[in-house]
Amino acid sequence: MDKRIILAKAGAGKTYYICNELDPKKRNLVIAYTNQNISNLLNEIRKAHQSFPDNTEVITFHSFIYRNFIRPYELLVAKQYKCPSFRSKGVSLIEPEKSRINEIYNPGYHKKDSIKHYYTKGCKEVYLSRMSYLVLNSNKIFEHGIAYMKKFFDYLYIDEVQDFRKNDWKLLEKIIIFFSERR
After folding, report:
1. Structurally, how many domains does the chain consist of?
2. Reduced to 3 states, what is the DSSP secondary structure of residue 37?
């Protein structure tokens, strides 16, 4: 698979390039960081190909991680963190408890070896800000997610790469490396 990184300033045409570069006959996965850019990508792909290609999926990074790496493999998550099986209901935008408040230990904080570090009370929702770290901490979840990608997609396009930070960036790098390996 061809690998390219295109670095250019805002407004230089990176989104346009992705939309016009993708082959509508191939199975394409297009990931962006923001909902606004998803809208831009959908419109630009329709313009470039006269309609939206059946084999193309456009999704935000966090929705992609939840739907393809976390939600289908929560039984593995439960097993890894030695807790009862559960099925989350979505993603929480609320920031989880910090380890310290005003330099004093926060008793509401849960360490990284606890399921409560990644999920809200009762494992109802996964914390958006900790999703990437959860996947990075489990080779089994990561391997299953990559296998899924390789089964259903031929090409991976990522827009807004400059917006990725910390663990999202680390996970994105790992996905790119493993997805682009020979199948």
Report:
1. 1
2. helix
Q: Is residue 111 part of a domain?
A: no
Neighbours of 14 (CB within 10 A): 17
List pLDDT tens digits, range 27-51: 999 999 889 999 999 999 999 999 9
Structural domain includes residue 169? yes
- Indicate whether this model's pTM tops 0.90: no
Identify the CATH number of the domain in which residue 59 sits.
3.40.50.300
In a domain, 117, yes or no: no
Residue type, 123: C
Q: Which residue range forms the structural domain that includes residue 1? A: 1-92+122-183
Quickly list DSSP for 104-156.
EE-TT---TTSGGGTB-GGG-EEEGGGHHHHHHT-HHHHHHHHHHHHHH-SEE
Nearest residue to 135 via CA among 61, 47, 44: 61
Give the C-alpha distances (Å, rounded to integers) separating 2 from 70, 131, 145, 154. Answer: 28, 28, 21, 11
